[in-house]
Amino acid sequence: MTTSLNSTVAEDNTNIIPFIPSGKFYFSHGIQAFQKRRFNAAVKWLKKAIETAPDEPLYPCQLSVVYTEVGSYHAANQLLTEVLAKFGKEYVDCYYLMANNYAHLGLLNDAKKYVETYLEQQEDGEFEEAANQLLEMLNSLEESEDEDEDDWAFDDEDELLVYQETAFYHLEHEEWEHALTVLQEMMQLFPEFKLAKHKYAYALFMNGEQQEAMDIEEEWLEKNPGNIQSHVNLATFLLKQGLKEKAHVHIELLKNVFPMHEQQKLAVAETLARAGLYQEAVERFNVLRDKQVVRRRVYYKWYSIAAYHTGNPSKALTLWEKGCQQFPSLSKEGGPWMEQ
Hints:
- TPR repeats lie at residues 23-56.
- The chain has 2 domains: 23-148, Serine Threonine Protein Phosphatase 5, Tetratricopeptide repeat (Alpha Horseshoe), CATH 1.25.40.10; 158-333, Tetratricopeptide repeat domain (Serine Threonine Protein Phosphatase 5, Tetratricopeptide repeat).
- Helix content is 73%, strand content 0%.
- It is built from 18 helices and no strands.
- Helix 4 packs antiparallel against helix 5 (73-87) and helix 13 packs antiparallel against helix 14 (244-255).
- 36% of the residues are buried.
């Protein structure tokens, strides 16, 4: 009996077909994880798909999309470069994906080069509309950067620096009428220093003259659709009025802007925090280095709030306490956990 039973089991075992996962198996699990925003799992599954089917270009392309989603833009572009090297023009969509990554990194010239290559080579491409929008934005930002360079060319002039610091002092301490007086003088003495006009519009809004402030920035934006400070101010004005949907268009543009100048970096970080995009804001605050910038009231306040809402309460409290030491009025606002 025993011999017969063992023989039967052995015979059955020979009929078992082993399951060997294919690239499609791993890829489908990677897509499911990505859709559920389980990015670490998605990366693991997609890497397994690539290992299993190294000649399938779809898998590294999808992995690059995951990397883009988590902010690993260089890693994403490395994968896309390898796909283009191996499969050539057959995967022209890679050019658009690379352009998008370069735009996120603030490498606007590279972004423009790759999006133009995509538009030249694609035929009814999936990303044609998005690529045209990206190119339009890059052209606008290019014009804006040219104008912004004029603003910062004044930095060595002692008189302007005194005005700047005086205006910043009043703005930081929410002394709006004093700030407006100083900014009006700045605009008369230094008409080419455009930042003063944006700060003037901000002070106007905070002083209760909201419509005039909105009109100034909307008129400015009509002339220069890519002006970073106009988008910052209009997003702030609309958010403070509770008009989140209207603010969305300005915030979406700012998410893709990585300015060169520290003051603008701070402005974008603050605006993203105001909009509740705390993780994106923390990433922007983390790269600020200039001493003048990291001692601003808005730096302490909004970096603290963003840190608190991304699960770092100890850092949030440290920042808030430092801010309260330098700006005692900040203590009246409760703390980073309060509704702002």
